[in-house]
Each structure stands twice: as structure tokens, then as C-alpha cells.
Amino acid sequence: MTAELAGRTAIVTGAGAGIGRAIALTLAAAGAKVVVNARTETAHETASAIRQGGGEAFAAVADLADRDAAGTLAEAALREWGRIDILCNNAGILDRWEPVARLPPETWDRVIAVNLTAPFLLMRAVLPDMLARRSGTIVNIASEGALRGGAAGPAYTTSKHGLVGLTRNTAWMHAEEGIRCNAVCPGATESRMTTGGGPGDMDPVAFGRIGPVLGLFPHMAEAQRIAGVVLFLASDASRHVNGAIIPVDGGWSAA
């Protein structure tokens, strides 16, 4: 089977750069019409790149920490194209790796809001249309931090563990209603999240604990490697794959 998405529509969050941009471009190249979300105007750059390549897309600039953003994105997709076939919850932010004893509550709140609450709200916003048609695919971008306790800070780790639980529960609850929900767990991947800061930006004590775990990953991956797995999960080629949590980490999680 081929990963053909002609006639389908998709929402991709955090698609202004990095993994999200690669996912949006890849889904569009396979024929999907894409709602490109980002917190900044970079959403327009990705949407423009899709259109220049002959695809269909429009940008939706929204901060997913805003609880109203999920409904706005779903309404825009339905207004423009009348259906939502694919949701890819990719947007995510890091903490500074502070241990719980030093983690500011406001950091916890924002990381959980973007990484876990926003995917829940988006899933809640798109599922009525999917359930009405008994067809829909949700792909959540979790993380190596969803598989380990020592690869990220407490807020990020908790948010991604929660996203895995949300993925599995949704897959089971709606399996008999035509809905599939899977998660991809990238390891170290070239993106603004991984290249935008270094140890100097992180809590030094926490870096001493987490650094050795990070040192285990085999090599940095290109964002396209993640996008290829998302394309598979979004297509009929994976139509019997549901509730899967798939590491895309070069074997890091096998260590």
C-alpha cells in the first residue's frame, strides 16, 4: 500500500519550523490539504512553501496555550474544506530541566498547557467531525522523554508521558468508531528545540544528571525521518495500527 492522502485534510500544529514543518510539507506532498499552525508568522512561510509546491494550505497563527485556539483551528478547517481527516499534534515546548524542588509553577503550567492540554483540546475539537464520518487519524508527537524519566525536565517529561496515556486511551475508546490514534517518540532531532540552546540555558545541576542520558543517543536525526513515520501513520498503509507508541530514535530507547 502507498501513503496516498489525496482528498484528505490535515491540521499540523507547531508547523512553522523543524519537525512540524517537515510533517506539513510531507503530508501536502502526499496530497493532503493542510492547516499550518504555529505561534508565529512562520506558519505563513510553511503554508507558502506548500502552495509553491502545488499543494493546498493556509496558515493559522495561534498560541496553543490559549484554550480557545483549538476550537478556532478546527472551525477554520471545517469552514475551508468541510472535513478534518488528520490531526497531528506536534507543537511542544521545553522546560529548563529544573528539578521539581526548583521548578517555577508558571513554567509547569505553560509546558503542560502547550504539550498536553492543547492536544486534548484539539482532539476534542476534531473528533465530532471524525466520529460523524467514522473516519479519522490522530498522530501525537511525544518524545524520548515519554519513554524515560531522565531525558528531560519534570514538566516536559510529565507532559509527554501524559500524551502517551492520552494516545492509548483515545485509541482504545474509539477503535470501533473508525478512529485511529498513535504517537511518535522522536529522539534527538534537528530542530529549533534541540539547537536553540545549550547547557548554559539549562539548570546546571539537572544537566549533570540528564547529560549522560542524552549522551547515549546514537546520532541526531533529520526532521524528515520523523515526518516519514507520521505520513505512514496518517495513511491507509497503517490502517490496522492503533494505539502504537513508536520510537524514532535510532535505537536510543533500546539502550
Separation, N- and C-terminal Cα atoms: 32 Å
SSE string: EHEHEHEHEHEHHHE
CATH top level assignment = Alpha Beta
User: What are the segments in which pLDDT stays under 50 over at least 5 consecutive residues?
Assistant: 195-200
Mean pLDDT: 92
What is the correct CATH architecture?
3-Layer(aba) Sandwich
- How many separate domains? 1
Helix content: 40-55%
Main beta-sheet annotation? 7 strands, parallel
Strand elements, count: 7
Shape: globular
Count of alpha and pi helical runs: 8
CATH topology value: Rossmann fold
Spatial strand arrangement across the major sheet: 3-2-1-4-5-6-7
Give the amount of beta strand, in percent.
5-15%
CATH homologous superfamily, by name? Answer: NAD(P)-binding Rossmann-like Domain
Structural class, from secondary structure content? alpha/beta
Q: From the alpha-carbon coordinates, what is the Rg to the nearest angstrom?
A: 17 Å
Briefly say what this structure is.
The chain has helices at about 20-30, 40-50, 70-80, 105-135, 155-175, 190-195, 205-215, 225-235, and strands at about 10, 35-40, 55-60, 85-90, 135-140, 180-185, 245-250. With about 260 residues, the protein is an alpha/beta fold.
